[in-house]
Design brief:
mainly alpha
Length: 78
């Protein structure tokens, strides 16, 4: 079982459970699952192919974490 499968299963079972937070933001598993699906779809729409490396540069934040998970969902290698 991979990390995305575990993440999705937890999102289905406990969508209101807090997933991640920083000084400015808090998201639940349900919110994170929806946002990472959208990020993954946007990356695919931009032509990111399965197994393709994806460079990210940002300070540690909830948004960065969600982007990493979205990239994994798209099959990219962040």
């Amino acid at each position: 079982m991979d990390i995305i499968s575990v993440f999705r299963r937890t999102s289905e079972r406990q969508p209101d459970r807090p997933f991640a937070f920083d000084a400015a933001t808090m998201v639940t598993y349900g919110e994170a699952d929806a946002r990472t699906d959208a990020i993954g779809a946007a990356l695919c729409a931009r032509g990111i192919a399965d197994g393709e490396p994806l460079g990210l540069c940002a300070p540690d934040s909830v948004d960065l974490l969600l982007t990493i998970i979205g990239a994994w969902k798209a099959g990219a290698l962040p």
